[in-house]
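Lecture 7, part 2: worked example. A protein chain together with nicotinamide-adenine-dinucleotide.
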Amino acid sequence: MSSTTVGVVGSGTMGSGIAQVVAQNGFNVLLFDIKEEIVIESLTRMRTRLEKLVEKGKILRDELEEINKRIQTSTDLSDMRVCQFVIEAAPEKLSIKKDIFQQLDKYCSEETILATNTSSLSITEIGSITRRPERVAGMHFFNPVPLMPLVEVIRGVITEEETVKALVQFAKALRKIPVTCEDTPGFIVNRIARPFYNEALKIHGERLATIEQIDRIMKKEGKFRMGPFELQDLIGIDINFSTTESVHQGFFGEERFRPHYYQQRMMQSGKLGRKAGVGYYNYDN
Ligand SMILES: NC(=O)c1ccc[n+]([C@@H]2O[C@H](COP(=O)([O-])OP(=O)(O)OC[C@H]3O[C@@H](n4cnc5c(N)ncnc54)[C@H](O)[C@@H]3O)[C@@H](O)[C@H]2O)c1
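Predicted complex, written out as structure tokens:
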């Protein structure tokens, strides 16, 4: 058991998964969101997932109780002052992330490492808003966090090697597989993944195949675990759209990364995928 407290800022799809994994591996967690009801709902969903692990015999009931005790919630960002690491998992918008990092920089000790789970935004730019850019880095988990082993640890231009090493070690303590990468738009995985979604949206837009057909072909014949539309629903259509927009901008408008208008329309409709109960498919939340 560790005495380290890890702050998680944003308790949505990723923040709740990160908090769960951090607590399951013996760290104390302080989970933040902007509203009490959001963070409580996130905690409830996490407890349901942990309860299922008990039912499946993957963890003992005693362990579950210990894990639950290690998780505290907050709606006051200044509470993060007690943390040795903070992982931000707020929406994929630079202005939101900069605002959070500016506040964290004010509240947290100089030694605290501030990490962002951004899928695509510049770590260097986020770090530049703080007085400690050498202790700001990317720590990019994959969805669903409890199941996906990969974590990209991203060094900004000013990030110190000590910070990268500490995050690599931390990722290993979470029983994840860290890979280090440079601060480029979309890093490794999200850059590779952009054409997967974009081409599927174009094929659908050109009426060459339906959403269901595209997903079925990619799974049955392509042997992908999920089709591009199912995966967008899992990720969240708003988050996926913002990531494509930011990779496109990051490469100064390079044509192959151009977002598709239909994904934007889906986002505007509020049909955001699993978290909304409806996206390209319907879900029973
Ligand atoms: N969804 C994925 O598959 C995935 C995978 C890897 C990385 N990411 C990245 O993780 C981050 C979070 O994505 P998500 O899918 O969990 O989003 P989400 O929409 O599920 O959750 C975002 C959470 O942030 C909270 N929030 C809103 N404004 C905030 C603020 N000012 N301060 C703190 N919290 C705030 C919201 O209330 C919400 O609970 C994004 O940067 C995203 O790119 C997402």
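The mean pLDDT is 97. The chain is about 45% helix and 15% strand. Keep this in mind for problem set question 3.
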